[in-house]
Amino acid sequence: MTSFVSHTSIDCRDAYALSEWWKHLLGYTDVPGDPNEPGHEECMVLDPETGHSILFIEVPEEKSGKNRVHLDLRPRSGTQAEEVERLLSLGAAEVADRRGIHGPGTGWVVLADPEGNEFCILTSEAELAARRQ
């Protein structure tokens, strides 16, 4: 017997605002028939391609310290550098740049969402394929 991941949960102060930010960042949508609205204490967004969902849950405390679990994101199109620039323009903050950590074309960039939750931007599939050639 095994388990599977039902959804990913993110604690936050404003579930609606953060779900809207991530929804725009990832190209996710509201769950059909269950739209997120201001004031909702729990807001779920859904990837229309894969079915993955993220649940934003309001909690009273501020984030403190480094995340113990985080999302690793790979650009659906374009390059890692282009995606980092896009996300910075949406309000993400750069935490650490680990590009090239294992040689040219390797590594990741650590960013944080508006509430300080860290996530990483990896190289795209196209960049990985080009490196293999």
Automatic annotation (TrEMBL):
Gene3D superfamilies found in the cross-reference section: 2,3-Dihydroxybiphenyl 1,2-Dioxygenase, domain 1 (3.10.180.10)
Which positions make up the signal peptide?
A: none
- Domain named Glyoxalase-like is located at 9-122
| Top-level taxon in the UniProt lineage | Bacteria
Q: Which InterPro entries match?
A: Glyas_Bleomycin-R_OHBP_Dase, Glyoxalase_6
Q: Which PANTHER family match?
A: CONSERVED PROTEIN, HYPOTHETICAL FUSION PROTEIN
Question: What is the name of the protein in this document?
Answer: Glyoxalase-like domain-containing protein
Q: Per the UniProt entry, what species is this protein from, by scientific name?
A: uncultured Nocardioides sp
